[in-house]
Amino acid sequence: MLLISCPNCGSRDETEFHYGGQAHVAYPENPNELNDREWAEFLFYRDNTKGAFAERWLHSTGCRQWFNMLRDTVTYEIQAIYPMGTPRPDKAAPAPESGTASTAPDSTTTGTAAPSIAATSMATSTAPASTTAPEGATK
Fold first, then answer.
1. Which of 92, 94, 68, 90 is nearest to 81 (CA)?
2. Is 135 helix (H, G, I), strand (E, B) or coil?
3. Could you write out the DSSP letters of every residue in 32-93?
4. Which candidate, 55, 67, 70, 76, places its Cα nearest to that of 10?
């Protein structure tokens, strides 16, 4: 099981989240001008990357906010978690500390900014800091 660090709520078990597919898929500028094949490609065709892959996730049992995650599909290592609407971070950038959140505005329909966690410390958490799958995981 993965330990995912929600930008709003902190580290939680993977069971609290729902996978939302590939991140950064641009909506067509003129969807009415697409033929059936082009529309089907937009809806159903996604990258199947081996390695670093940008994904969308929903914290469905917590804050109900969407966020993006850069995760290695081979090792399950979470390399970055970042708000919706921001560009994908560089693959070579170091992974953020567990519990790190951004205070940048999110792209939800509420239009509100993510809460500040300046006074919050995740150092007292008893949860393990590792976000990789255990040896022998079959997922």
1. 68
2. coil
3. GG--HHHHHHHHH-----SSEEEEEEE-TTTT--EEEEEEETTT--EEEEEETTSPPPPTTS
4. 67
Cα dist from 97 to 5, 62, 64, 78, 110, whole Å: 9, 20, 22, 11, 27
Distance CA 139, CA 132 (A): 12
Long-range contacts of the stretch 11-14 (C-beta < 8 A, 24+): 11/98, 11/99, 11/122, 11/125, 11/127, 12/59, 12/62
Q: Residues of the chain with pLDDT > 90: what percent?
A: 62
- Give dist(CA 82, CA 86) in Å, integer: 7
Convert 125-138 to b/e letters by CB count within 10 Å (16 or more is b).
eeeeeebeeeeeee
| Residue entry with tokens 């898929």 | 25
Find all residues with CB under 8 Å of 74, minimum gap 6, and list them. Answer: 50, 51
> The pTM is what?
0.62
- Please state the rounded mean pLDDT for residues 124-135: 54
